[in-house]
UniProtKB/TrEMBL annotation:
<comment type="similarity">
    <text>Belongs to the aldo/keto reductase family.</text>
</comment>
<dbReference type="InterPro" id="IPR023210">
    <property type="entry name" value="NADP_OxRdtase_dom"/>
</dbReference>
<keyword id="KW-0560">Oxidoreductase</keyword>
<feature type="domain" description="NADP-dependent oxidoreductase">
    <location>
        <begin position="26"/>
        <end position="264"/>
    </location>
</feature>
<dbReference type="InterPro" id="IPR036812">
    <property type="entry name" value="NAD(P)_OxRdtase_dom_sf"/>
</dbReference>
<dbReference type="InterPro" id="IPR018170">
    <property type="entry name" value="Aldo/ket_reductase_CS"/>
</dbReference>
<dbReference type="Pfam" id="PF00248">
    <property type="entry name" value="Aldo_ket_red"/>
</dbReference>
<keyword id="KW-0521">NADP</keyword>
<protein>
    <submittedName>
        <fullName>Aldo/keto reductase</fullName>
    </submittedName>
</protein>
<dbReference type="InterPro" id="IPR020471">
    <property type="entry name" value="AKR"/>
</dbReference>
Length: 278
């Protein structure tokens, strides 16, 4: 399969993003170049990293070594919490861009709202300035709940292109997702497989669909995300699983199968609460 078949999601700023990509949270910096090179060979063209993952250089080396034309790639990185603030955003962004070795970054996100710092509004205003430069295309946020988005929209000019939130069948964040949809903010699902912390692949709603379509439970969960309209970038260090997770465009879940998985919601958060993580 090639990336040409991966659907693209239209963003509110005129750019578009491949709906399925590859994430590198907890990918060891020493192994990142090899793992990302594998992902690019498998066919992924959308990569999701962050300063705090410590592996931007490895991502950049794999991109440079691949020879893939820059315009075929979509690269996201994120501003870490202690770099929030008017003065620090530009320096932090330039450092990330240099570590990635890129002339421009496709998407830059505020990683967490960290409300106790109360700096996400001024940070977002600095993002708006940064977007005027040649080094950056789209700007967005991560782990913002609807009340954080509401404040941002009220106090600043630009509506975020995306909100990257924890989202899997046990934790679908319907309030934030529907607020985002109403305001033209695309939803990116992080931890789309529940980070392996829940037995999602053993649930009958998932295994019965897997049997019906002759695919794996992981492929069913990824397909559920795609049909729900989420952008996602499941992570795996294994090339076999990278290929498995990318091979999800040759079948379609029925409406009932999608609804059964959507019915699994139970507020099963695996991460910190965005109001409490600072
Ligand atoms: P994930 O839900 O993608 O789960 C990864 C786990 O699932 C790994 O342990 C892997 O071994 C396992 N797995 C992957 N494919 C499998 C398969 N086919 N069969 C069985 N097991 C499989 O979790 P994640 O990596 O945390 O999330 C994906 C990406 O989201 C990250 O890499 C990162 O880019 C992003 N992320 C963002 C934030 C944020 O705060 N913005 C937080 C966490 C992750």
């Amino acid at each position: 399969m090639t990336d040409q078949l991966v659907p693209r999601v239209q963003l509110n700023d005129g750019f578009s993003i491949p709906q399925l990509g590859f994430g590198v949270f907890k990918v060891d910096p020493g192994e990142t170049e090899r793992i990302v090179s594998d992902a690019l060979e498998v066919g992924y063209r959308h990569l999701d990293t962050a300063r705090i993952y410590g592996n931007e250089e490895g991502v950049g080396r794999a991109i440079a070594a691949s020879g893939i034309p820059r315009e075929e790639l979509f690269i996201t990185t994120k501003l870490w919490n202690d770099d929030q603030g008017t003065e620090s955003v530009r320096t932090a962004f330039e450092a990330s861009r240099e570590r990635l070795g890129l002339e421009y970054v496709d998407l830059y996100l505020i990683h967490w709202p960290t409300p106790a710092r109360d700096r996400y509004v001024e940070t977002w205003k600095a993002f708006e300035q940064l977007q005027q430069t040649d080094g950056l295309r789209s700007i967005g946020v991560s782990n913002f709940l609807s009340h954080h988005l509401e404040r941002l929209i009220a106090e600043t000019e630009i509506v975020p292109a995306v909100d990257q939130i924890e989202l899997h069948p046990y934790h679908q964040q319907p309030a934030t997702a529907s607020f985002a949809e109403e305001h033209g903010i695309a939803i990116e699902a992080w931890g789309p497989l529940g980070q392996g912390k829940y037995p999602l692949f053993d649930l009958p709603e998932v295994t019965s669909a897997a049997a019906a379509h002759d695919v794996t439970p992981a492929q069913v969960v990824i397909r559920w995300h795609l049909q729900r309209g989420h952008i996602l970038f499941p992570k795996s260090n294994s090339r076999e699983r990278m290929a498995e997770n990318f091979d999800v465009l040759g079948f379609e879940l029925s409406e009932d199968e999608v609804a059964a998985i959507t019915g699994l919601e139970r507020e099963g958060r695996v991460s910190a609460h965005p109001d409490e993580f600072n």
